[in-house]
Every structure is written in C-alpha cells, then in structure tokens.
From TrEMBL:
One of its GO terms (biological process) is negative regulation of bacterial-type flagellum-dependent cell motility. The keyword Membrane applies. The keyword Cytoplasm does not apply. PROSITE patterns: GGDEF (PS50887), PAC (PS50113). It comes from Candidatus Lambdaproteobacteria bacterium RIFOXYD2_FULL_56_26. GO terms for molecular function: diguanylate cyclase activity. This is diguanylate cyclase. Signal peptide: none annotated. Its EC number is 2.7.7.65. Pfam families: GGDEF, NMT1, PAS. CDD domains: GGDEF, PAS.
Amino acid sequence: MTKTLRPICLLLGLVLFLLLPPLLFAKGPDKVVLQLRWTHQFQFAGYYAAKAKGYYQEERLDVEILPAGPGTESPTAMVLSGLADFGVTNSGLILSRMKGEPVVALAALFQTSPNAWLVLADSKIGSLHDLVGKNLMTLPLPESADLLAIFVHEGIPLSKLKLQKMSFDIEDLIQGKTDAFDAYSTSEPYFLAQRGIAYRMIRARNYGIDFYSDVLFTTEAQIKERPERVRGFRKASLRGWIYALNHPKEIALLIQQDYGSKKSLEHLEFEAEEMVKLIMPDLIEVGHMTQSRWEFIAKTDVALGLVPEVKNLEGFMYDPHYKPDYSWAYKTLAWTLALLMALALTALWVLRLNLKLRREVQERHKAEAHLKESETRQRYMIERAPFPLVLTQRSSGEILYVNKPARKFFVRDASQDPVGRTTMEYYADKDQQRLFAAELKRVGRVEGMEIKLLVPGGELVWAMVSASPMDFGEERQLLVGLTDITRAKALEEELRRRATTDDLTSCTNRPHFFELAQKEMERSKRFKRELAILMLDVDHFKKINDLYGHEVGDWALKAFTKAVTQELRTMDLLGRIGGEEFAALLPETLLGGAGVVAERIRLAVEQITLPLAGEETLRFTVSIGVTNLRAGDKDFAEPLSRADKALYQAKAQGRNRIAFLP
C-alpha cells in the first residue's frame, strides 16, 4: 500500500510547492505614482475621489498623486522616465506614440476638448476668421494643436497668425495685451464672470476639429509586466470619476481641505458644472475612446506638420481584456502533471492488475454519475448567470431554454415565449445569420460577433453574441451568450455623424466633403461621366454678423442650407467649406444643367425672409461659381479652384449672380 501511495504523495507535494509561495510571500498594497498635468483642481476630481473612497485600496494600490505647473516636466516625460507609473495629458499623447514612444491611452475623460480662444465680447471678434492678424496668446505646438488646427482646416496658413508666448495670466486679455487667450472653458471664464466682464469663446469643435482631452495613460511595459495593476488602477479611477460627478460639492471640499487648492469652493463647483458638458456621462460611458477619433487626431497632427505620416497606432488604445501569455507555464505544468499521473497510474496498474475488471466497472459507474452531475451543474450555472444565456439545438437552431436575463431580453409579453422558436426568426439581417453560421462551421465557436436582432413587437436591438458547443448526453447543443450593445451602437453612430457633419447646418463638413468629392471625381473619370461643381457664398455675411450678432448669423446659415438642399437631388452633395462658404457636387450633370440648378438656388435664397425684432426682417443673397470636371484634372482641388475663381467673378460683377468657368 505504501508503494501505491508514493506517486500520489509526490503529486500532492508538487501542488503544495506551486501554491505555497504566493501565500507565503504576499505583499502589501502596491505603491503607484500618478502625474497630473496641472495643479490640484476639480479637473482631476475622479482620482481624488478614488483615493478618498478606498477604490484604489480595494485594488491593493497605494496611490501618490503629483501636481504639475509651469516649468515642471510633462506627464509624458515623467511616465517614460519611470518617475511616475500613470499620467494625465491631452491628445498630444498620440503624437508621442507616432514618434515611437511606447505610450498607451487607458481612457479619455473629456470627450471634447475644453481648449477655446477666449475673447472679450466688446472686441468684435466673433469667428475664427476675425482672429487673423490679431494677437493670439497660446502654448507652443503640440499643446495648442486643436486651436491651431482649425486655421489649417479653414485654409488659413499659420504664418498669417500673430502668436504670443503664454503668460498664464488672464489679466493680459483684460488689459488688452492680447486679443485672444488660449483658455480652458472650465477655468478662465470664471474669472471674467466674477468681474462682470462679458466674453465669447471660439471652440475648435465648431470648425470640425474635436479632440479628446485629459487622457489617462501608461506605458506598454506597465501593461505587459503589471497587467493586473494597470487594470485595477483604471477600474478604480473610472469609479472615482463616476462618484465625483455625482457628488461635486463633497469632492470640491475634499480638494480644498486635503490638497490645498487655491481655488474657492464656488470656482471648483463652476469647474464641475463645465466638466459635465465635456465628459457627457449621461450620453457616453466615462473614459470611452474610439479608434476612428484617434486616427482623426493623428491625421490632424500630420496636417500641422508635427509628424510626416500616421504610424505606430496599433496597440495605442488599451484593451481592458488584455491578458499576458502564460501559455508556456501552463504547458510546462500540464506536461509535469501528465508525467506524474502516468507514473502513478502505471504503479497502480502493476500493483492492482488482478483488480482491473472490477476497477473498470467502478470507473464506468463513476463516469456516468459524473456526467449527470456535470449536466445538472451546467444547467444550474446557466440559470444563475447574471447575463442573457440561450441554449439551442445546434442542427435546427430551435431554442430549448433561456435564463431569466435572456427572457427579459427577448420577451415583451407572455405570448412571445422564445422557447420552441428558432434563432432564425430573430435575425434582422440575413447576411449576419450566414456569417454567424460560417464562423461556427469554420472554428466551431463564435466570439464577440455584433448582430442586429428583431425582437417581438418590431423592436431592433444590437447584441454582442458568443456561442460555444455543449453536449448533454448524446444531444449536440449550442450555448449562446448575449450582451445588449444597442446604446453603444447608437453612441457609435452619433460619434460617426459628428465626425462627418457640420454641427451648425447639419450638412457634410469640410473633411468629409473633400473625401466624398475625391471619390465621386474618380468615379466620374473612370466611367466617363459628367460632374459639375458649385461654389456658393452668402453675400455680405460679415455685415450680418456685425449688425445683428452671431446668433442671427447662425440662423441665416441654417435657413440658407435648408433652401439650397431643397433645390438639390438626393444624389447631389452639399458641404460647408468654411464660414459662409459652401460647395455642391452635381453628378451626371452638364455645365448648362448646373447653371439651371444654380439659378434655382439663387432665386430660393433671394426669397428667404427672417423675422427680427419688431417689424424688421432680414433678407440676403448668394453668389455662385459654376464649373465642371475636366479630363486633365488630377485631384478635386483643381475643379474646386476653378469654381472658387468663378465665385469671385460673380462677386466682382455685383453679387447675387452666377458666373461660369468651364
């Protein structure tokens, strides 16, 4: 008997050898340093809340929060040098990545940048174009990337700007030492409001440039070597942000008392109110990022000449589900255990040869009992799972069982029981059904496929679907897990719309218009089709702004866009090029036909009447330049330039007219 137990004892000894060290050498909380990008204020409230509420402690982290200020090292430099483990910076982080630095974005707290050109209301500066030739106090590139990118975006060379070195003193704006101040919408406007000084902000997002800000980041090495620490720090920080946004007064008081902030409670609460507009927690998950937004920011950095090309973006966005590869260790352990088991079984076989038959019978009975127990356990786990799970017949797709969360997902009333139906009834897109079946056939399982479902009652929902085969007895079944991503899909669509649409007029914005125009031009040349281009400019628009204010100017642009759109076909494309300038593409249209459309537009705009205060009304006109595509045009800039020249001919001839330049 002693010989029989020896291999088993050896196996137990190995298990103890592997399990005891983590228990014996467990350490206390892990010390972590977070480098902020400015002094202590509500801008970093989430991190203070995470520390005060014990969220970091729950993740076994002891976090030191370091402030910054003028003249201190940047958060990126601190993290790359190893003096800090995590940092908070702006969208310039992607520039560091493209230059080869191993930085990784963990979360974007501000979904839109707080940076804005702050001007005094009595300065008569109301738009981006009014800033040309004025004194602009700002930080150097790349810190000021979004505020300078809007000039490039609008076709204004940076060489035409009068840039001043940032003093960080709002008095320079008040005293007239500068005309526009690179400000944070959550901070400097407060000082002006306190002194009763009227102001205006010119934001980058109103001109098609919308950057992330206050990005939490770390390095690739941290993620690879300490993945659990990174995951825990990010999780606790985002919890802290949610708490801070829901309890602004409590956290404002904490910042004053524990971090010595020089700002008043009223100022900190002002910060909190403004930050909600930037974080948008009711619309977007706190910390949310998308690859397409980062790619847009990277392309903008290229347009500013900060880097020659977009590169090194793979791995820039953190994957919260990242797990290090320990497969080599698992394989080694598996082989060791397999070898020991083989030795033990061999010893038992030699010593108990005469009991072989009896043991086989016992093992068979044990296996059958285990199978029944396993089936019961699996059904229990499915029923108790907190997320929707569906059990289907693999061959027919018949739904055999749904747990409670799945029943809530599919059922709107008692007559809609999904059990007995087939999964095919719920697909809103048959192509997705075929893709699901093909993936299941190819690899035997499906992981994280996004599928649009049609639930009873006609409601469309999006689900992230995973499926794994499962055997109960001789039956072949499929266990399907679902995650409702309908809200995330709606958000994704809204962000995509914002990236391609002009906020004010709802027509195509400049970057997207140029992208579509280039494609339409290539299509027309390839198939030898006609293409006409119109350039449109609202006459005397600056005078409208000066006389009636920018709110009336915005109203006029909206009415103008509506009138023009009504005269265009569905296949035509209207885009806002900048300010009061618009362009339209007319596929399959000769120059003469384009002239007819242009005249309809001119007459429609001439009929616009906007009521103002009292009996006063506003009417305005439009000048239009018309050209068509030439066989020798290499890119869209060439026909657009001709249309622009034709437009200026129309203006030179007295405005409210059409000029042609074939």
